[in-house]
Amino acid sequence: MSDTQSDLDNDIILNYVRNFLIDEHGEYILPSNKLANLKEFIESDIFLEKVNSRIDRTVGELFFMVLNYSIENALSVQDSVARAPVKLGIKQFNGKFGCSWCEHPGVWAFGSMRYPILEQIPRPREHQSMLMHMLQVEPGETILGILYPSPFINLLKLNIVYGFVPDYMHCVLEGVAKQLTDHYSSSMTEIEIKVLDEILKYVKYPCQVSRLTRPVSVRNDWSAREWENFILFSSVPVFSTILSNKLLNHWMLLVESLYILLNDNITVIELDRADKML
């Protein structure tokens, strides 16, 4: 295929995607900002027709050939609160069997549901078994945390388990990174924290960074962007003053893998390297 034809193909696909959810009057077909309406929208005939039927029609002709394009919903990303009711119809992460990807029952401890490491690895959730449980569950009951059928089961090409991934902001920035930072600084005095604040002042950021990270002492108020800038640009010089080489090297595995995965283009070798470091 020539570069010219490839460019034209891309233009056709891009234009089609842009108009994917536009009705006959030129209006965008979008749900309101309410979660309940989003669920109704996903289950509606007008959405399912766009995804499962309209995508198979011919969208353009090129060089006397009919080009058929198919758009499939390969994956979806929601935060932990939205993922449970909209994606799976299961309990939230703070409920029993609240994990979206495995059948860990969870343990109630210290006032909340927690998911400790078990002696026996929990069984991963599977697409077919989840569909079966969704059809079997009765109103008011649960099967391994499943409350009701997910509206996403109507998307024919979407895997109900692995078609959904943890969201980057809550999983990494406000999740793992925050937990490790809190753990590292939990034994530090107020004076020692202020020393970290002073070190942070002297870190030079790239000119493209629009929001600098505030002092470590107010990290509970940091936005996700501040956490990202801290991880990528200032965490290593700050932590190098308080962590042992072993802990610092452990932290840098997260930093380097995050740097790789946030690039616009990465190679398979880089992807494998990031996977091993994580």
How many alpha or pi helices? 10
Q: Low-confidence stretches at least 5 residues in length (pLDDT < 50)?
A: 31-36, 54-64
In N-to-C order, the SSE pattern is: HHHEEEHEEHEHHHHH
Lateral strand order in the biggest sheet? 1-2
Q: Strand percentage, roughly?
A: 5-15%
Rg calc: 23 Å
**Proportion in helices:** 40-55%
Summed up, the domain count is: 3
> Which class do the helix and strand fractions yield?
mainly alpha
Rounded mean pLDDT is 79
End-to-end distance, in Å? Answer: 38 Å
Number of strands: 6
Biggest beta sheet summary: 2 strands, antiparallel
What secondary-structure arrangement, pairings included, does this model have?
Elements: H1 3-18, H2 35-43, H3 45-52, E1 58-62, E2 65-68, E3 76-77, H4 80-88, E4 107-109, E5 112-114, H5 127-136, E6 164-165, H6 168-185, H7 190-201, H8 224-239, H9 245-261, H10 268-277
Parallel strand pairs: 3-6
Antiparallel strand pairs: 1-2, 4-5
Helix pairs in contact: 6-8, 8-9, 9-10
Q: What can you see in these coordinates?
A:
By secondary structure, this protein is mainly α. It has three domains: 3-70, no CATH class; 76-166, no CATH class; 170-277. It contains ten helices and six strands, in the order αααβββαββαβααααα. The strands form three sheets. Strands 1-2 form a two-stranded antiparallel sheet. It has a two-stranded parallel ribbon with strand order 3-6. A two-stranded antiparallel ribbon has the order 4-5. The radius of gyration is 23 Å and the shape is globular. It starts with a helix and ends with a helix. Mean pLDDT is 79; it is low at 31-36 and 54-64.
